[in-house]
Amino acid sequence: MKTVLHKADTRGHANHGWLVANHTFSFANYYDPKRTNFGVLRVLNDDRIAGGMGFGTHPHANMEIITIPLSGELHHKDSMGNFGAIKKGEIQVMSAGTGVQHSEFNGKKDEEVTLLQIWVIPNKLNVEPRYDQIKISDQAKPNDFQQIISPNPDDDGSWIHQDAWFSLANFEAGVAKPYKLHREGSGVYVFVISGKAKINDTVLDTRDGLGISETGEFVLEALENSEILLMEVPLTM
After folding, report:
1. How far apart are CA 174 and CA 156, in angstroms?
2. Domains 12-138 and 140-234 fall in the same CATH topology
3. pLDDT at residue 237, as a whole number
4. Are 120 and 162 in contact (CB under 8 A)?
5. Which of 159, 171, 216 is nearest to 195 (CA)?
6. Yes or no: is domain 12-138 CATH 2.60.120.10?
7. What is the DSSP string of 188-228?
8. Nearest in space to 7 (alpha carbons), one of 173, 191, 213
């Protein structure tokens, strides 16, 4: 098994006042040639948005964009006619395809929004743009892996144009579970949202990330009560 460890304090950091962002991979003004992606996982941003602030209307194309709110309420508006709010316990998926414009902003004045935004390079270009928003908290699986993203519209969670599977693990301290990859030749990027975990001899603290490749299975152990995101993706474009 091959691994690459990204400690939380080694991420790119930007403080714009209204936005505090941490970039696991090169993004905007942060560039590290050794950290441009993990396979088709292109962006993993950990954002904090001040009350009433946000991103104005901006374009995207040919990218699968997954937003996972961690606290607060994020409002969204796009050129497909979608408008609404998402909060913890929900996820938003947007296939930008041939092109879409959208805005994102904190819907509350008195508290910040925290979120993860993830970009995945698709396996199909110039598809018709699509939007999906689902509640995942009702299907939560304590001490097990809960699939939230897959390539198949008929599977649990939402879907994207890529052979990728995302799972959330809400593990109590001491729980250890084997994760079996869905596809030969893929890798898994493990990101600790909260808590502390261990994979083999590598200990991961809150907001640490570990890229895992050249294996079909590994064991994830929670050293504390933890929420962990696992992103299984192809390693070749």
Report:
1. 26
2. yes
3. 80
4. yes
5. 171
6. yes
7. EEEEEEES-EEETTEEE-TT-EEEEES-SEEEEEESSSEEE
8. 191
H/E element holding 159?
strand 158-159
Give the tokens for residue 157: 């969670």
Tokens of residue 80, six digits: 């497909």
Gap between the Cα atoms of 69 and 89, Å rounded: 8
Each residue of 2-46: pLDDT tens digit? 999 999 999 999 999 999 999 999 999 999 999 999 999 999 999
CA within 13 Å, CB half, 2: 7
- DSSP state, residue 30: B
98-124 per-position pLDDT tens digit: 999 999 999 899 999 999 999 999 999
Q: Exposed, middle or buried: residue 198 (CB in 10 Å: 0-12, 13-18, 19+)?
A: middle
CATH number of the structural domain 140-234: 2.60.120.10
Angle, alpha carbons 161-132-233 (nearest 5°): 35
Q: What size, in residues, is the chain?
A: 237
CA distance 99 to 40: 19
- This prediction has a pTM of 0.97
201: buried, middle or exposed (CB in 10 Å: 19+, 13-18, 0-12)? exposed
Tokens linked to 6: 């990204």
Mean pLDDT of 131-143: 94
- Domain locations along the chain: 12-138, 140-234
